[in-house]
Amino acid sequence: MSILQPSKKVGNTYQNPIPTIQTEGGFLPILWKYITAKEERVPKIPIGPFPVDVNDYNTTSSTGLRITWMGHSSLLIEIDGRSFLTDPVIGRASFLQSVGPKRFFPYPIALHQLPKLDGIILSHDHYDHLDVLAIKQLINNPAPIFCSLGVGAILEKWGVSPDRITETDWTQTVSVAVDCTITALPARHFSGRGITNRNQTLWSSFAIKGSKHNIYFGADSGWHPGFKEIGEQYGPFDLTMLEVGASNPSWPDIHMGPDKATDAHLALNGKLMMPIHWGTFNLALHAWREPVQTTIKHSEEKGIKLFLPKPGIVTEVAEYNSKWWI
């Protein structure tokens, strides 16, 4: 059965493309691991800041595809003359700004300094992807917002005009311009901003196709066989942006980690892979550098070319390792 179908609901909750367990073994064993773990989950020596030189946005991309990594899953993507911002989070990844995971380094650009955007893409409603502080600072930005089903109501509650919001279901394609489309695609994850509203909004990945380039923003997802279908129907991809951090053996269904992420890149028929969702927040038990180190190891074993820019640097997309974390 094909995974490339619109989303399905049981009652008021969305379903994953294949059966999924959010956390194996229960909460208490995980809590004990958090208490006893010795890994350097937060940099001992502060990193950053990594400020963007906004003058770089006055230049034209030489390749037609360049990216500014803002950390975690937030990117400013410039593709064939169009610009998109994904999942901006400037505050803590938490329901309160006084507690919870905070960024290892400040968001590299003040949101009012962003170049003209053709769209803001919001993959799902988790706190490390959907940030009320960022959205409220973007209230007066005229860029349209493309989000998963149900997320629009949250944005409207925060003051975003409904005229700016386009909710997308899996396999739904939206034309941003004559030469640019965004397609929402399945992911294997979950949603909810509290314990009482799990999976009442949708989570998605996205294919972004310009006049010359075709790229895949994976957001959050565990491994699923639909990656191959996505690659066959919507690929090949000049760049895949795939999560490698916040993984753990206790939640393999909802976060891939480096090994499965590199497998996903190959299944997607990707030419170049950019590891995302790492190096910004303490969200798991691994050391903060471990995801990128392990991704490099797997990429060498599997013959995968990586794009690893330094945060805040406007970077042409090509095989590149900035080694900024060393």
TrEMBL record:
Q: Does the keyword Hydrolase apply?
A: yes
Give one GO term, molecular function aspect: hydrolase activity
Q: Which Gene3D superfamilies match?
A: Ribonuclease Z/Hydroxyacylglutathione hydrolase-like
Q: Which UniProt keywords apply?
A: Hydrolase
Is Zinc-finger there in the keyword field?
A: no
Against InterPro entries, the record matches this protein to: Metallo-B-lactamas, RibonucZ/Hydroxyglut_hydro
**Metallo-beta-lactamase domain location:** 82-278
- What cellular component terms from Gene Ontology apply here? cytoplasm
Q: Which Pfam families does the UniProt record give?
A: Lactamase_B_2
Name used for this protein in its record: MBL fold metallo-hydrolase
User: What organism is recorded for this protein?
Assistant: Flavipsychrobacter stenotrophus
